[in-house]
Amino acid sequence: MREVNCEIYGIYLRYIAPEDNYDDIINLPHHVSQRHPRMSTYNRDARFSPFAALTGYEKAIEEARKKQEVEVRRRDAPVEL
User: Fold this and answer.
1) Per DSSP, what are the bridge partners of residue 5?
2) Which H or E run includes 36?
3) Across 9-59, where does the E strand assignment appear?
4) Would you say the pTM of this structure is higher than 0.85?
């Protein structure tokens, strides 16, 4: 445990913080594997890019947009008296 002093909105706080579990490794250099080559940006993009989980979603959105346009035109049409 270690004592921590800080100020928040002009209020001084003093509390006991738990031991930081990563203090021993936080400043180590980034590990680079000798066994596995780094993945190319192209392959990484292909692996982690979104996929079409919602098939037909774009079609449904387009149909809703067209219906909305028809409704707006109908409401904006001049009324003959």
Assistant:
1) 14
2) none
3) 11-17
4) no
Q: How far apart are CA 35 and CA 62, in angstroms?
A: 49
d(CA 69, CA 76): 10
Number of Cβ within a 10 Å radius of residue 14: 8
Q: Which two tokens stand for residue 15?
A: 């509390």
Helical residues (DSSP H) of 1-81, grouped into ranges = 41-48, 57-76
Nearest to 19 by CA among 38, 3, 43, 35: 3
pLDDT digits (tens, 9 = 90+) for 23-77: 777 788 988 999 999 989 888 887 777 766 667 888 889 999 999 999 988 888 7
